[in-house]
Amino acid sequence: MRCSVFVVALAVGLSASSPLQAIEKRQAVDDTTVLNFALTLEHLENAFYQQALAKFDQQAFLDAGLPEFARGRFEQVAAHEATHVQFLSTALGNNATQPCTYNFPYTDPKSFAALSQVLEGVGVSAYTGAAQLITNKQYLTAAASILATEARHASWVASAVNKFAGWSGAFDVPLDLNEVFTLAAAFITSCPSTNPTLPVKAYPALKIGNPVPGQNSHFSSQSSTGPTFIAFFTGLDTIFVAVKDGAVEIPKDLSGQVYALGTTSGTAATPDTIVSGPAVLLFERNSSNALISSGQAN
């Protein structure tokens, strides 16, 4: 994988590396832990779809301007997520984590579909990042099968429903357990006290205002330690951009679903250097690769 350092005007520096290097195996993370982590996400997705479909009928989907087939397909996606929950719960038996209470910020079928695209993308990144932590080959194969289905969901929602590209590029982003948990925690209001404790932590929030590739964007970080770099996870690359006067220059070639994290390092985004994020950034491009929309999704 290519690693490079770019120099940007006014001493704003970029460097590229791989987020795979930041996903470290820990002795406390065994297969049961990884499966329970996956089940935690599947419970969230299952609740997300079940609640939205109970709230919005076919007419609501049509009134929102979504395709006539959209709700029926979302019912199928919901059934897949319920099956994933059942499969993982059966595999874990008495060790299986139970569903939490959730709060999802959609207000209509259109905002539900937009959030669905993001959540499915996060699910793909979660399974991709966790794959190297699984030691049992049968579990790994099952996780790969679920990953493939989550990727199909993400692609369908993005292209058929939201009319964007069904991919972000040649590679998806692998996220580690802390990064995924941070994103999931935003929707969780409470969990059963009997649930197994996962060896994860949530990072403080990172907000990037009006992110447009090639332009400076001001940001806010809720961490007590201010970031000196923003790391952009795109595919298998990480691009580090130095912070200057509370702003960061968005790399010009970003596309699709990208994750941004505040760090204290310009070469590594690890639990020791990450101070905030991830922020989920969407850079949607048309078939000519022209930018048609951009923004932060969380």
CATH class of the largest domain: Mainly Alpha
CATH topology of the largest domain: Ferritin
Rounded Rg: 19 Å
Order of helices and strands: EEHHHEHHHEEEEEEEEE
Largest sheet: 7 strands, antiparallel
Q: How many domains, as an integer?
A: 2
The structural class is alpha+beta
The count of DSSP E runs of length 2 or more, i.e. the number of strands, is: 12
Q: What share of the residues lie within helices? A: 25-40%
Physical arrangement of strands within the biggest beta sheet:
1-2-8-7-10-11-12
Low-confidence stretches: 1-27
**Mean of the pLDDT scores?**
90
Inertia-based shape = globular
Distance between the termini: 29 Å
Tally of helical segments = 6
The proportion of strand residues reads: 15-25%
What is the name of the CATH architecture of the largest domain? Up-down Bundle
Pfam families: Ferritin_2
Signal peptide: 1-22
Protein name: Ferritin-like domain-containing protein
Keywords: Signal
Question: Care to describe what's here?
Answer:
This protein has 298 residues and is an alpha+beta fold. It has two domains: 4-23 and 204-296, Immunoglobulin-like; 31-190, Ferritin (Up-down Bundle), CATH 1.20.1260. It is built from six helices and twelve strands. The strands form three sheets. Strands 1-2-8-7-10-11-12 form a seven-stranded antiparallel beta sheet, covered by helices on one side. A three-stranded antiparallel beta sheet has the order 5-6-9, with no helix packed on it. Strand 5 (206-208) and strand 6 form a beta hairpin. Helix 1 runs antiparallel to helix 3 and helix 3 packs antiparallel against helix 5. The longest helix is centred in the first third of the chain and has 25 residues, at 31-55. The chain starts with a strand and ends with a strand. The relative contact order is 0.16. The model is unreliable at 1-27 (pLDDT under 50).
